């Protein structure tokens, strides 16, 4: 049986139950959650301090939105892939996330397997944007 490489993650969501659920999923997959945040500033500070392999980021934050968090993350000297996990599922948000350097986008209305698939794809160096969203943003 082959061993799974444990990756590190930060979970940024303003809902404690959502963070707990994502933590449980990540831990079950053998990954290590090195921090949790409920706002943009905390997320940025944790990212700088922990330099995780991935950030799972909700766009809804009590102080700033997740788009500003993506902008802040772009200012770091290294690239930390961000997977946007949001209730906002329209193409405009997906396009903005893509423009701001997000590695993926998953709706909170999706199946858990889609979230896990997105995390796996991003950790392997790929991006993950659902085809129905990409079809909406193509000219």
Give the strand order, joined by hyphens, for the main sheet.
2-1-3-4-5
Order of helices and strands: EHEHEHEHEHH
Q: What would CATH call the class?
A: Alpha Beta
Which percent range fits the helix content?
40-55%
Query: At CATH's second level, what is the architecture?
Result: 3-Layer(aba) Sandwich
Q: Let me know the largest β-sheet.
A: 5 strands, parallel
CATH topology: Rossmann fold
Overall pLDDT confidence: 88
How many beta-strand segments? 5
Task: Give the N-terminus to C-terminus distance in angstroms.
Answer: 46 Å
Global Rg: 14 Å
Q: Structural class from helices and strands?
A: alpha/beta
Describe this structure in words.
The chain has 6 helices and 5 strands. The radius of gyration is 14 Å and the shape is globular. It has a single domain (8-137), classed as Response regulator (Rossmann fold), CATH 3.40.50. The mean pLDDT is 88. The chain is of the alpha/beta class and 139 residues long. The protein has helices at 16-28, 40-50, 66-74, 91-99, 112-123, 131-137, and strands spanning 8-12, 32-37, 54-57, 82-86, 104-107. Strands 2-1-3-4-5 form a 5-stranded parallel beta sheet, sandwiched between helices. 44% of the residues lie in helices and 17% in strands. α1 (16-28) links the parallel β1 (8-12) and β2.
